[in-house]
Amino acid sequence: MSEEVTYADLKFQDSSEMENIKEFDQVGVKVYLTLKIEMEKLEKLQNFKDKLQNNVSLQLTYNMDSLKEIRNLSSTLQEMATKLCYELYQKEPEHKCKPCPEKWMWHEDRCYGEFKKYETWKQSDLICSIHNASLVKIKNKSVLEFIKSKKFYGYWLGLSPSKDRKPTEHLDKTIISSDWFTRNTSDLNGGMHCGYIYGSYVSYDLCSNEKNAICEKLDNPVKIESILMNEESNGRM
Predict the structure, then answer these.
(1) 60 to each of 50, 52, 66, 123, how far by Cα in Å?
(2) pLDDT tens for residues 132-148?
(3) 118 touches 128 (CB < 8 A)
(4) Angle at the Cα of 62 (from 59 to 67), degrees rounded to 5?
(5) Burial of 58 per CB tally in 10 Å (0-12, 13-18, 19+)
């Protein structure tokens, strides 16, 4: 005998399904609300992250600008100190702010050492090397006038040795010379000729002969504290 489905049974089933749907809807609402809350949290975190990155970027930009300004100020201060030191050097050649070794002359960004030792060109070049310097090269008008003002006679120059003895020429013409590079220095005993300064002229002689030497090297940065200490000591006097 087959079972009979009564109205009461159908009503009960409908009621059960409705309950299930309500429970499902409630779960769905909870999931939706939970997701919504989490999304809002994520959005807040993302906004915070964006603000933080923006602040970091602004801070970095500010720091870079500050560093640039500090460098500019430091450069300006160094230039002022160098100019002041040069003025003091004109009055007192061995002033403690001078960025050159003792007894060396200072001109622009270089130091010049005069060595009154009669040596061959090669030995003179070695003497300069020992002092972390090289034989003088005259490559611009300012150096030319400086060297001419010192009236050097019989001093080796940093001109490339040559097999042929070149004619004497005025010092002014050496500025544009391509010979201000010491080449062919491996064998200087085979009749090679080297240039030397004689007043306002450049002459040539056997490199094996002996003359004095003028060396040059880059100066050191002027120490700002040496300027400040000098000003303080002058203020107390």
Answers:
(1) 15, 12, 10, 55
(2) 999 999 989 999 999 99
(3) no
(4) 125
(5) exposed
**CA-CA-CA-CA torsion sign (16, 18, 23, 28):** positive
Could you tell me where the DSSP H helices lie in the chain?
7-91, 121-130, 141-150, 224-236
- HEC assignment per residue over 161-190: CECCCCCCEEHHHHHHCCCCCCCCCCCCCC
Q: Is the pLDDT of residue 173 over 60?
A: yes
User: For residues 125 and 135, what is the distance between their CA atoms, to the nearest angstrom?
Assistant: 6
The residues that bridge with 111 in the sheet, in sequence order, are 106, 217
Q: Give residues with Cβ within 8 angstroms of 223, minimum separation 6.
A: 81, 97, 99
- The phi, psi pair for 209, rounded to 5°, reads -75, 170
Q: What would the two tokens of residue 233 be?
A: 């000591």
Q: Write out the two tokens for 89.
A: 């050097």
3 state SS of 97: coil
Strands 110-119 and 201-206: unpaired
As a whole number of angstroms, the distance between CA 202 and CA 24 comes to 107
The mean-pLDDT minimum among 6-20, 36-50, 179-193 falls in 6-20
Nearest Cα to Cα of residue 182 among 124, 235, 97 = 124
Are 175 and 217 in contact by the 8 Å Cβ rule? The answer is no
Are the C-beta atoms of residues 227 and 81 closer than 8 Å to each other?
Answer: yes
pTM of the model: 0.67
3-state secondary structure of 29: helix
